[in-house]
Amino acid sequence: MFGIVLDHASRRSLALQLADGLRRAVVAGELAPGARLPPSRQLAAELGIARRLVTDAYEQLTGEGYFERVGKRSRIAARRSVAQ
Question: HEC profile for 10-57?
């Protein structure tokens, strides 16, 4: 999904790789502001990773201002709240 490829042999954690890939997709405009992100279970199943890795990546990007929580769902932030 989103053209993200995870390298299971890398020293870099899968959660960080996922966060990097999602961040790049937002910056590149591949993920439009306000777009809903897939549920963590769905994305984890598509990528063949643990759900916790997806939730960690989502939380990281929420903290950085790329994502925002709307109810139980995460969305691409309408506008970045932190400097790039």
Answer: CCCCHHHHHHHHHHHHHHCCCCCCCCECCCHHHHHHHHCCCHHHHHHH
Residue span of the structural domain in which 55 resides: 14-76
When divided into structural domains, the chain yields a total of 1
User: pTM of whole model > 0.70?
Assistant: yes
Query: 30: domain CATH number?
Result: 1.10.10.10
> Which tens digit of pLDDT belongs to each residue from 1-59?
668 889 999 999 999 999 999 999 999 989 899 999 999 999 999 999 999 999 999 99
38 domain residue, yes or no: yes
26 assigned to some structural domain: yes
Residue pair 36/75 in contact by the 8 Å Cβ criterion? yes
Cα 6 to Cα 10, 30, 45, 58, 78, distances in angstroms: 9, 18, 13, 16, 27
